Amino acid sequence: MTDEEKTRAIRVGILDAGKKLKHRYPILTRQNAWGMSFFLLSIVMIMGAAWCYLSHGAPAWAVILWIAFWTSILHELEHDLIHYLYFKKQPPIQNLMLLVAWLLRPLTLNPWMRRRLHFHHHKFSGTETDMEEKGVTNGMAWGILRLIATPDLFFGNVLRFPCFQREVRDLYRLGKLSHEDTLHLKRTALLGFLPFGVPLHLLWYSYVLIWLATILADNGLIALSPAFIHWQRAVHPLMILLVVPNLLRQFCLHFITSNMHYYGDIERGNIFQQTQVLNAWWTWPFQLFCFNFGSTHSIHHYIVDDPFYLRQLIVRPSHLLFRKYGVRFNDTGSFARANRYGLIK
To answer: Burial, 338: exposed, middle or buried (Cβ in 10 Å; 0-12, 13-18, 19+)?
Structure first.
């Protein structure tokens, strides 16, 4: 079978699995209600954790892990909202959900700007113009730079900006990016992390530097003004409740997504080559904070209209189809190939 024939067969099978599940449990057809329920539950859980921490009822490490988990569900909701899977005919509700999900994950890209990048990703996944995946380190050789850029989109992309600029210019000259595409990429680079991401990242870097300085001061190596220590204590709750959980969540998500997507030698439009299933036992600490992304996201590339909770429920029949038609599972060799599809030896 050709890759196109395999893709068609997998799509038919996944659609059939989803239809059977909805027929058995009609409540699953209430997509808007499910989306709003997960949305409100995540907010309540995050706010509850914040209350527990601020009232000295929970340790910082537990709160960080808890918030990282629930913000991973908000990421899945944002992704579905980008595809208009909830409240498509009610834009005010949809936009409010996008805004709140962004506020609770403020280190991320503006979701309205991300929408164009994400649609381009689906159309050109794994090719040289797939800037969304390139932005989360897909296609990079593993080293210090990729390790830095994996959790920190802002600093990582600042370091890679000259390379990005040169690549975008070359792709435009070759006619692979339109004038509108290049303008959107420029706007995204300049404004995508405003108004939340840029100041919060700068606050985080300042916090870390002062924390390191306090260690030196405690050992008598330097003198540190009490004003810096007071400032650090004042912003500490913000770091615990907002910044650190999202850095943890982003590291897990970007590690999984950048390694389960192939990049660089993909035939344009060939869905069969775009992803693998990355669900080996050692990935589960990462999967916990990206809501099982490595196991379920390939399903989305075949069927984009299924919401995230349905993908979780049809994992088993989907994986059986993947194995039947030869979709790759846990191709860890792609780590050494800088995520090239290549050939498994």
So the answer is: middle
